Amino acid sequence: MRLGWAAGRRRRLPFNLEDAGSHRWEERAEAAVELLVGNVEAICSDPAAGLRIADFGAGDQRLKRVLADKTDLQVSYAAFDIRPQADSVVEIDLRRELPAGDFDLAACLGLLEYLRDVPTFLGRLAARYPAALLSYSVSDHSEPLTKRQRKSRGWLTHYTTAQLEHELEAAGFGRVAFRLVSQGRTGIWLVASHSSMAASSSSASSSKS
After folding, report:
1. Which of 109, 131, 160, 202 has its CA 20 to 30 A from that of 184?
2. Half-sphere exposure for 111 (CA within 13 Å, toward CB)
């Protein structure tokens, strides 16, 4: 009986790739882009000059499509994933390294849940990039998944909204904007590194004087 039950179980694809066509993923990407567009001047002094975006955990490059369809932002886009789904996506294990090159913003949508050491990863992001656009399925939803359910999805951490914000601050990021999607299950943060915020403040003070 146990063998039959095990054989009949549906094996989930890594990183929940069977959900790639889900409206939730589309909603998340659209909400992230809206958050970015509405606050782009807070992270970029001259948006007209263009924004260099590194999409970490890019999947099928949904973010690239939504940026092109929903905004007039001038974007230089590069995609990275541990399991590339297109030739234009660079294979990389972000747990071990970050890509070479300079970017203005690191996008991590649907990525943090699969990292065991989130604080270290966030610290590396804050040290390299002026801003980041992040999502996380928070555990303090009104009808939360149990830890067992989260683990069955391959998620390795169980942060509440406040706990993740604490980790962002400790890593060196300050919150620029935030919103919840998927009926409050997923938080999206636009954050800027403390060093870039200090530089922007200094620049603004100099221009006034």
Report:
1. 131
2. 23
